[in-house]
Design a protein that fits this description.
The protein is of the alpha+beta class. The protein has 2 domains: 80 residues; 94 residues, no CATH class. The protein has 6 helices and 8 strands; from the N terminus they run H-H-H-E-E-E-E-E-E-E-H-E-H-H. The strands form 2 sheets. The chain has a 5-stranded antiparallel sheet. It has a 3-stranded antiparallel sheet with strand order 3-2-4, with no helix packed on it. The longest helix is centred in the first third of the chain and has 22 residues.
């Protein structure tokens, strides 16, 4: 009985990690959920010997794969794609490069641009969709509007820089980002071992 309860707990632990793979917007998508998928299938089939649980797990996997591959069309994960709008915060241009990427610029000269659209402060444009980019293994959400694309830097710049556009809705659901962080589990040991060093640096750096 104890052994069975132990495997039930193991199975339940696997579930949030599997679901996390569905909403993870990082470049790894559900890849880091595969060990938990295999473990859940093995437990339900071999250890708990529960056919209903086994086939339920398979159904969950199908849903995870589907949600993962259709993320950028899901307003629950990207609220901005349902009734989303951007507001231009300064006069400038929406520029588009040869590869289709684009963003805001206050510079009228752009030799590498294929299109350049004048925009004015206060202009409002509809968001038609989102695209995901993965620079340096990070992630960024690119907004596709009725006049072209806007980079994440335009609405979420680095500290010290000003926004070029304002959104009327979040680009990404906070709960999805939080749940998707479970897919960073391989980094947990590194973070744990690095914590004392970070704390020591913080303490001794104080005047």
């Amino acid at each position: 009985m104890f052994q069975q309860k132990k495997f039930v707990i193991y199975y339940l632990v696997c579930i949030p990690f599997i679901i996390s793979g569905a909403v993870n917007a990082g470049f790894s998508r559900y890849f880091m959920a595969i060990p938990f998928i295999v473990l859940a299938l093995w437990i339900s089939r071999s250890k708990l010997n529960n056919a209903l649980l086994f086939y339920g797990t398979i159904a969950l996997i199908v849903v995870v794969v589907f949600v993962s591959h259709t993320q950028t069309r899901n307003p629950l994960l990207f609220p901005i794609i349902s009734g989303g709008q951007i507001e231009i915060l300064r006069d400038g241009y929406q520029i588009t490069y040869e590869d289709g990427s684009g963003g805001f610029s206050n510079d009228s000269s752009c030799d590498s641009c294929i299109t350049k659209t004048k925009v004015s402060k206060g202009d409002v444009h509809k968001v038609l969709g989102v695209l995901m980019g993965y620079p340096d293994f990070g992630e960024k959400i690119i907004l596709v509007t009725d006049i072209g694309q806007f980079d994440q830097y335009d609405y979420a710049p680095v500290v010290g820089d000003e926004k070029n556009i304002r959104l009327n809705k979040p680009a990404r659901a906070a709960w999805a980002d939080a749940l998707g962080m479970l897919m960073a589990w391989p980094m947990a040991p590194i973070m744990v071992f690095s914590l004392p060093g970070f704390l020591a640096q913080y303490v001794f750096s104080k005047p």
